[in-house]
Each structure stands twice: as structure tokens, then as C-alpha cells.
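Build the 3D complex.
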Amino acid sequence: MTTLGVPEAALRAAGPRWRVPPAPVLAGTVLLLFAVVAARPEWFAVHSPTASDLGAALRPPGPEHPFGTDQLGRDVFARVAHGAWPSLSIGVGATALGVLLGTAVGSVSAFGGRLLDRVMMRAVDVGLAFPELLLALIVLTVLGPGPVNVLVAIGLAAAPGYARLVRSRVLVVRESAYVQAAVVMGIPRPLIVLRHVLPNTLGPVSVLATISAGTAIVLSAGLSFLGFGPQPPAAEWGLMLSEGRDHLQRAWWIAVFPGAAVTTVVVAVTVVGRWLKARLDGGPQ
Amino acid sequence: MTDTGTDDDLLLSVDGLDITFGRGRRAVHAVRGVSLRLRRGECLAIVGESGSGKSATARALAGLAGPAATVAARAWRLLGRNAARFTERDWRAVRGRGIGLVLQDALVSLDPLRTVGAEVAEPLRVHRILPRDRRAAEVVRLLDEAGVPEPGERAAQHPHELSGGLRQRALIASALAARPAVLVADEPTTALDVVVQDQVLRLLGGLRSDGLGLLLISHDLAVVARIADRIAVMHDGRIVEEGPTARILDRPAHPRTRALLAAVPGPTTRGRRLSDRAPARTAGPTPAEAAAPPHPDGGAAVLACEGVTKVFARAGHPARTAVRDVSLRLAAGEALGVVGESGSGKSTLALLAMGLLPPDSGTVTLEGRPWSGLPERARRPRRSAVQLVQQDPLGSFDPRYPVGRVLDEALRAAGERDRSRRRARAAALLAQVGLDEGHLRRRPLELSGGQRQRVAIARALAPRPRVLVCDEPVSALDASVQAQIIDLLTRLRRELGLALLFISHDLGVVHHLCDRVVVMHGGAVVEEGPVERVWRAPAHPHTERLLAAVPALPPGSAAGERPGPARLPGAT
Amino acid sequence: MTPSLPRRAARRLLSALLVVWGAATISFCVLHLIPGDPVDAVLGPLVGASPELRARVRAELGLDAPLWVQYLTALARLAALDLGWSYRLDRPVADVLADQLWPTVELAVAALVLAVLLAGTAALATAGRRGLPRAVISGAELVGAAVPSFWVGVVALTFLSFRWGLFPGPGAVGPHALVLPALTLAVPIAGVLAQVLRRELDDTLGQPFVTSVRARGVGRTGVLVRHALRHAAVPLLTLAGWVFAGLLSGTVLVETVFARPGLGRVLVSAVTARDIPVVNAVVVISAAAFVTVNLAVDALYRVVDPRLRASEAP
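Done.
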């Protein structure tokens, strides 16, 4: 029964099955471009990201320096290009770490029996009681600053969310009619887990990971901005923003371009992630 | 169509109503050239399957076809005004006051977050019929009029605190609050159980005597036959037949009408196909189909439950006994029906029989050997003997698997090691359930409900079981598709000598398909016996109560030669 | 069928306390996880701390006692609301935080109000509609939700403050100086809130009961305000914890950008200087605040949705 009064035929005929809408395509292209820039910045930037030229300090954007120069006369475009790798790899790496840890904890909790489940989920509750930034700051208090430590801190901070998701998905899938059908067929338990439970759990996890990668990138830029990430003279977007902050009155471009880069990447990641999510929720349509 | 009443009596008339959803090449022409007349004190019923365009018509008549719809009509008059020219503002003034709408399930058709009283009072507020301080008293009066007991207390409650029947009455009260002249009721009783359905129908029927024009939308001919003056049958967006109720039931002219009448399983349909039946009036078993289903060989039971009890306990909640001391025996080749309302424990019984739940006491035996109380490892090699068809076919497939892989997995689990042999058998299984090889590559999501259930049955047949447990296998399907699946099960049973444990809330279906029936209520078996006997002479008051309230097609209609209960309505 | 209200309340309270206890345990672990002598950790990189001071710290923290005694002592202190002593600032931690509490609360509340107003306006104006305005607004929300708040602050300062002089620059005081920081903090939160709110409103507008309501003659505004908004409030409440977290972490960055005093900056400098007692206090306090928010939300659910009052039976 179609509750909206739209005949089922209308819903079924709602469109060709496999057409990716333009927004995710554009977003995917943008991400691809940033990935190439991160891997090979020298293809794009003629100038060195670290060579200072005090004679050419604080030049506004122009033909020689498309994004202008900073207080030390370094080319901002080159610094943005070379900053892509540290800025993006921390966020992506942290997400991978979070997914790995979270999946491990979540599966152990779901399969490991009641007591273990209770204890682990309490621990996860505690982890979820903190904003990720605060959790990351606690970890950084112990580890001290540095890009690798930022990666570890964000990954640890993100893990409780994944653990919760993995556990609840496993529980849902385990009770599903198709797992019941597999039991009826006489398929051994471990095989059911391998064939049905895990693949159907990891779908939503990968979607969440895609969307959260954006958050992780913002977070890593934020921690770098606060001075916990790469140290000067490294080129990293958060750090550049922080350095540019002191020269806002005279040179807006130093801080604006790296921030725009972060925003563009995160918007693109979000668009792709949402499209993946819509696909997962709505099936092949 | 001859207009007999005076023009004053004509509340609603529409000519050539067209409704299109979407635009351009993707547009779906849902309703084509529908013409209707509704007079004061008259009940017109529109009957059709889902997708026939009847709901879209109902909504469009209240100006609520939705933003995606384009509505057009050659002429359209509502209460003497030209409705084709109505602006949204005009509609707002007419809705509630001139034309009221009652929708299917009041649980979702009343705002769940507001009190029943606030919902009933809303038309009074919107149309400024009564000042705020006098509305409460009017709400109580309206609820009382709609047959809601203790209307004062009910008005302060929320929809979820009311039973389905009371909710539906409250919804009717809210639709009638501003005294509309026309009431459109879209499947107003579909979500209700048979007893309550009867009461609500009587309430609606009684409204006509006050001069209300009632437009009743339903998929169920038996339901509308009781109160409608005229019936219009819709199919594929058109009205294919219209006429007085008695004539439609007695002498259906259009094949779709006959199909609708025939798809109602009931007392006279045993042993004959429900779908694609020969034209009416040749009713009665055709020789080829009349072959009686195989009779139980009287030998040892393939599946038996002895005093099985299952209690569900949750921390902080009192324990609930889902199944209480149930014993039943299923002989080889026999079809045993288990009937009961939702919550009667019949689905739990299915899980116990499948060895998917351990009983708290009692035993289940399969082919004479213990089946319950074993470790799963010991049960696994014997699982091929008993297979399950679940209610929701879509949910029973791994969403990532195409049909071919679904069947392949089942065949591999059944011990078929050779890959090409598996492929051949998968195709053969599909053929057995009336699908072709082309479906192997499709995903379940792309199939229709009936096709999905066919795939589920094919999968269940893969290990060549002796017993098929079917848990409400047709309750999620449309009447005509339901008929096809029932026919399929009947045929498979005959061809393969399958024993069937058929669980359903639909006595009509069970009567059609099964040899014996077990009636469950509150977790216990209240009646058991040959299906004919239970049907004709129910012994337990509960069975009787169920049967008594079932709407039936009147005697002499094309589907029912004799009076008798037709079917329990689909309550999902 | 359901556990009685007091029992459920007691259970909630217990699990809230468990979370705070977990936070206290984490902060205890932090101190002992830092490599080297905990005394050094507590003192921070204070060059040339005198042996007397070191001895005093050792005695105060009972560092000679067995680990479990130290742990219990730490918990007992917390229970007595004793947050310890910041050696770096040479003041009680409670005083340090109390000084900085008000500016942060002021900023957070202003941002919250602003975010709710922005999100509510955007969502109500576009829910259930199609066309260009909706596309533009949802695009803006997408960018708003993705943009790093510190960058919003930097851009706002550059143009609104330095270029056009509409608002005072960093370090200013007074209500006028609150506008830019609050806006900066509100933008990412408003972006997400608006998206969720509109999705919920759209969902609600698609529900069958809305057809009933419209069939009574209620117009679009009436449906949205009298019916849909309340339905959308339920999922919005779920976001309350997230909003709180967003405000908390947002203040850390925004206060730094605008050189405002507040808890966020105290925390950043404490983490930088490894002022462990301050870090630990912030950890425990924010966990306590978070569980309080969640307890309040839990109670509010019941007010908004009567179905939850009745039963949580299976």
C-alpha cells in the first residue's frame, strides 16, 4: 500500500537505475585533484614552499604569485600545494586508525559475551562523553605535540563512535531474517559471520568513515592551528592559518587560501559521503 | 449513467479526472478519465488493487494529490462550486468544512504527539466554528457521537493510548467535526481486526442517514459490499465497471471485477485455482484442478511438538509466555494451518518448530528423532529436512546478493559441490516456482513482492525438504499476488509431497490450503480439527467470534454460492 | 510493564555517575601515563623547581603510597570537589576555572541562540518546498557545516573587522565584541542543525497524519508550526549532546582566534604547558556537564513525545 497515494508504478519508474547525479561527480573530481596535488605538489607549484625572500614579503595575489606571498616572502600557492599532503594524510590516517580500533572493539563487544559487552560499552560511553577535540587534547597531553601524535590522538578520539556503530550493526544484522535464513540452510556460524554479518556491517561503517574523514581533517587542521601539529617552517594548512592570523590586517591572503582549501576538501568529502549513504539506504536506486 | 436526483442532491461530480505524477518522460499517468457522481445520503465505493489509482483519486478529490501530481478534469463540481478552478486558499476553506478525509491507519493518521482532543478540535479552530472555551465540550460530543466510550477521558489521551478501533473512531470524529457534506474514507478499516472493522463500518454506514455523501475506497470487495450503494471498480487508473452493489456482485461484467471477486479465498474455493480463473458462473472445481490434495498417510509425524512452552523474560519486565503447552503433529504430506491474531504466539511456534528457539519445556521431534535440546552442530546436518518461508521475503535475502547467489548459497549448503550442477539446479528451482533464468542476475530489490516470495520458496526447496514451515508468507502481498502464491504452494505440495506448517492470521487462506487447522489464542491452542469442521462449526468462542465478524460476500454473488465467512482482512 | 519512573531515573543517574567516574579514571591515568616522574608532570616544565616544592607535591599527591591508594585518594578529592592546585599558575585550579567560566558561557549561550535562530529560519522557510531558494540555502548549509570555525573567524576578522571596521578586533571587550566570536562559533553548528531540522520537517510533512491535518483545512504554516516542529524536536534533542560538544570544542578554537579569555584558552595553554591539574579538572568537569545535558535531554524526550512516557515495553 502506498501511503502517499503515489502508485507503486510511479515509484518504480522514478528514474534510470544507475545515474550518478552531478554533485557527487564534481566532488569526486575535486577530491581526485587534491589527491594528485598531495602526491605531486611540484607538478603544480613552481616555487619552493620554504624558500623565503624577504624582498618579496606580503605581496598580494598576482600573476607571479597567484595566492600572494607570506611575511617571509614564501609563495602561498606553493605552501598550500605542499601543505596538502600533511593536512590530508593526518585526517585520512586518523580515520583509518579510528575505523580499525572501533571495528575491533565493536566486534569483540558484540561477539564476546554479555559481561565483556557491558564493560566495553561502558568504556565507549565514557569516550563518547567527550568532544573529540577534548579527547584528542587529552591524548596530546600525554604524547606531546607532533603530526604523528595528532594522527593517533584523532584516531583514538574517533574510535568510540565506530565501536558503537559496529556493535549495533552486528546486533541488527545478527537478528536479521537473512541470517535466520542462513541458519535454516544449515550454514555453520563462523561462515555466516564471514559471509553475511561482517560485509553488511562494514557498509555503513565505510560510509560513516567517509563522512567523518571530513571532520577528522577539520580537527587535524584545528589542532595544527593550536600549535600541536607540524612545527614551523613546515607547510600545513592549519599551521599556515595560525601564522597568517598575525598578519590579517595587511595580508588577508595568507590565512584565507589554506582555509579555503580545507573547506573545499571537506565539502567534497561530505557530498561524496552523503551520496554513498543515500545509495546504501535506498539500495541500488 | 442517468442522473435521477435533483441537482441539489449532487454533492460531488467529476468528469474526466486525470492525474499524472512527475513530468516529461518519467511521468506516470496514474488516473485516466475517471468520472464520478456522489449524492446526498449515498455511499459510493471505489474498489481496486494497490496501484490502481484509487487512493490518488481519493486524495485528488480533497485537493491533496501532492506537489508531484498534476490534476486535470473536464468538469469538476464540489458542493455546487467549480472545483477545477479552486486555488489553494479555496481548498483550505473547503477541506474539513465541505469535504472530510479519513485515512487508513489512525495510528499514523492522527498526530501522535498531540492529544486526541486537540486533533478532533482542529477543524473547529481552523474554520473558526467555535471559540476556544466551547471547543472542549464539542469535542466530547463529537467523540461520543462517533461511538467512543468515556469521551471526556479519551480526549485527554494520545493516539497510541487508544485501541485501533477507538483511534479510527476518533479520526472519523475529527473529519466530521466541521460538519462536511462529503466524507472520503480511504481504506478506513484495513488496519483493524475483524470485530472492530465491523463496528466502524456500521458507524460509517449510519452517517448516510444524516445526508452525508460517503466515498469509500477499499481493496476489499467483501468490506464495501456491506454498506455501499454503488461500486466502481478501478484498474490501471480507469474505472472499468460501475453499478449498483447487488449488480456488481451478482453479474460482474468486467474480468477485473471477476478477478477481484475470485481472489477472495473462502468456503467454496477449496481445490481450485484462485488466480487467472475462468470466467465467473463456471465456478466450482475444474476437473483438472479438483484433484484433492494428498491426504496424510496416517503414519508417523514428520514434525511434532509435545507440550512446548516458551517464556520471554526481560530484566525489569514481567515474563511473557508466548507459547503455552502446545502440542501438535504434522504428518508426512499433510498441510496443517495455524491461525491466530498477531500476538497469539504463532510466529514463536514457527521458530520453535524450526529449531531456531529452544523451548523452555516440552520437546520438538523431527522425523521421529529429537530436534529441540540439541547443540546447533548436531541439528545442522538434518536442517535440510525442514525449511522456512518467512513473512518478509525482501528482509530474508542478504541485500548484497543477486538471486543467483541466494540460490547458489542454499544449494551449496545442501551439499551440492559441483558448480555447474548448482547452476543448473538453480535454474530448475526458478522454473519450479514460475520464474525464469533471467531472474538469476536480478537483485531482490528489483523484483516485485510476489517474485521475491517465489525466490524465497525456491530457496527453501533447494535442499529437497520434507517439511515447509511458512510464517505468514502471503500477508504482505496484494490479493491477486497472494492468490498466485497460494496456488503455487498448492501445486508444489501436490508435486513434491511436501508437508506444510502454514502460519497465518487469514482463516480464508488457511481454509483454502490446509487439511487441518489449529487456532491459537494467547499462546495456547484453543481449537484444533479438520479445517472443514472448524469452519462450519467452531467450538471455541474465540474462533466463533472471529468467524462471526468476518465480512462476507452476500449469497448468490459470483464468488460465494453459499453464505459463509470470506476472509479475515489483512492486519499487518 | 515498564520499570517505575524513580527506578529508571536512578538507573540513568547511576550510568551518568559511571561516566564521570570513567573521566576521573582517565585523568588519573593521564598523570601516570606521562613518561617520567609524575612530580615533573604535575609541576610542568617549571625550570628549577626547588627540592622543597618537589617534596611538597610528592606529599600532597601521596605519590609514595601504593598506586591504588593514590587512585582512591584522587577520587575522594574529586568527590569533595577539590580540583587541586595549578603549580604553573600557583593558584587553586577551581579559582583559575571560575575566573574563566563566565566569558565562555556567555560566548556559548550567544552562539547557541544564534545557531538555533539561523537554523530554524532556514529550515522553516525551505521545508517542503522545491526550487532555487531551497537549493541555495541547502548549499550554504553544506558549506557552513563543513567549514572550520577558526577559518570563519579569521575571514570574519579580516573583512568585517579590519577591512570594513564593523566590529572590534581581537582582544576587545563588551557586548559588541561578542558578535563576531558568537557568529563564528554558531556557523558550523547552525549548518548541521538546519540540515537535520529540514530533513526532519520534510520527513514529517510526508507522514500520513499530515494529510489528515491538511484535510481539516490547515495551511502550510499551520502544519509546520503546530505539528511538524514538535516532531522535528525529537531528533533535534538527540543532537543536543553533539551541539554541546561542538560548542565546547568550538570555544577552544574561537577563543584563540579572537584572543578572548575563557576556559578554552586555559585548556590549550594547560595542554601546551602540561599543566596536568588544570587539564584533569577540565576533563572531569566537561564529562560531568555532558552527562547533565544528556540527563536533561532524556527528561525532555518524555515531555515532547508522549509515546515515551507511556511505555518502553517490547
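Residues 93-126 of chain C form the longest helix (34 residues).
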